[in-house]
Write a structure and sequence with these properties.
Shape: elongated
Helix content: 40-55%
Number of strands: 20
Number of helices: 27
Length: 740
Amino acid sequence: MLIYFHETVSELKRLNEYAQRLQQKFEQGREAEDLLLDAESLDERLRDVIERLPDPEFSGNARRHLWWMTKELKKGNVSACKNDIHDLVINDIPGTIAALEKWAKELSFLDEALRVSVVRLIRDRQFDSAIRKAFLLLTERLRTTYSLPADKDGEELVNLIFGRATGFHASLDDSKRQAYRNLMSGLYGVIRNKFAHGDHEPSLAELELDTTRPIFGTIHACRRIARSIFLGSAPDAGIVGGAKHHRGLELERLMLGCAQPGQVIGHYKDAVRAIVDKLQYLNSANNRFWFDTRPNLRREMEDRKRRFNDKEDVFPFIREKLRFAQGFFGGVHVFTGSADVPDDWSLRLVVLAPDAAFSRSGQGTSPASALDRALDILKNRGEQPRQKQNRLIFLAADADSVSRLKDQVRSVLAWQSIVSDVKEGRLNLDMLQGKQASKSSEDAKDALERMVREAYKWLLVPMQEARAGKGVSDISWEHFQINPATVNRMQEIEQVLKDNELLITDWAPIHLANHCKTWFWKDEAPEVKALDFWQKSCSYLYLPRLRDDNVLRNTLAAGASSRDFFGFAYGKDGERYVGFQYGKATSPILDDALLLIEPAAAAAFDKILHDEEVARQAATASTTVSSGLGSAPASNGSGSSSTSYTTGGQSTQGAVNEPPPKAAKKTLFFGAVELNPNQPKAQFSDVVDEIVMLLNRSGVRLKISVEIEAELSDGFDENIQRAVRENCNQLKFKNGAFED
């Protein structure tokens, strides 16, 4: 209790402040139901503190007042509780603090030697010195009590007192005497060695594991487990009977030694895992646990963990674990600086380093939050401003998980180094410890896989809002959590983006028309280049984020047959559109020439074309009809016919004007071109874009052949010939051979 004196006093002071706030609620006239919740919480916290007091009487009437207060509040009788809360704040809790401080000052239950030499050291948290001093006093009193020489100490002293030949404890049977000997030998071998020889000074977390974990503290789980292990194996069961391979207690027997009826066994199992992680002289293997005078491998691992640096060791290791399938992204950039993230038309996922973590409550953690790092990459590519800002999506680690993730990576690296040293003979371990190191390494790796998924769960998406005539808002960030249990993380990311309309994979033509109407079509310019819309949607955050240009192509094709959305043209000559199409199913080619025309303007131009066609047909029909008027045709003696008709009182004779026949449409195209052998790929790509794409449409039977001819006066090497022939076969060439 003396070790926890300051913490207990601090907790009592916090409880008094809590009680004062509850008293204020009474004065404000709060409802009984609201007051009851606070009163029950205060009662539970005060009960935990009172259980740690050296004397329950120190608490005075605090428990009685709280019991009465909760009873009356359950009845809704608020007025009957005001005196009780007043007594708690003014008398009960302050009186408990005063009684505890008086007890700590007097310590009348200790003899003078302990009070003078040990208590002061404990109060100053000099546990190393306190335990060393306590064992010096114990050793001196054992020598005095049993009249033993002054040079006897440690296990030798214990053997002299509890050995069979001494006769000091003849009334004890052998089993009890051996149990006492093991207990005292363990105290000297483990506890005294651990602290008195400076091997380890306990941290506050180790001493207060039961206190800091309420689920353990209520049943004193860690203390019971440690005592059971110590009594069952102190200091090493292998000493008794030489049964080294049976040392330690099995987990089932350990539970029998700790748990009481009605308690949850699982809490004790959790506590076992907790103390195994904390105590460096507690060993475990094959589901058995024991204390030993030698430090376990965890001590070695903890020492090695301090060797690893975040930037040089931890972050690169996490990067290796963060491997994603590319999926629909054009690139995944893990821990990449802004200068190395391309500024192009591809959609890209940028994974931020652990030192730029995200917290939903704080919207990032200082000084280098995820949002600050992401904003820098979004706006800049190195020292140049970034243009295609709407092509970046960010993935960040959870700020609450980063510290655990980095610690786990250090554990994995430490275990790996231990296993490597054992294999190469640099570290001498017995077979059991070697197996334990390998198993711990595998367990740490498995835990790391889960931890990486749990840590990197925040998807950050930049957004802007804009309204015509009102300007553009500042950049804001949408954040969404990814399910860490999903098998395919890239699929999960795509689904989250699609569900929240942050990434468009299928787009209706009406949405394209609405955006063109809002931002692009003007009265003086009722058309916009389709490629211009695509490029601006990649740049501006207030425009839709399309997965790729194929989404826009599919949208254009879907809206081509309707007259409600837009018309097409492949250029504009003065006031006339070139290659105009409106309301006809087609697969437009998305290039620099394609224009999207506002429906009203497209309808107006379509009417002009229709009127021109009607006029042209009328003129043709008029010429045909007028050529059939007048007298019947007469022979002119040359075998041709002539027509005589009167115009304005004069007779005119001429040849019949028959309408010229329509020119037949060409049905076949053939073209050949020679490519530069030094740049064939680029030139062939131009041929495909400029020729093949124009011809490749519905109803066209397209055939493309590639003819390659190579000549070398000295002849081709056998290796080259073999490689070319194999590649020709692989590429399904109809013929490909070398000739003399």
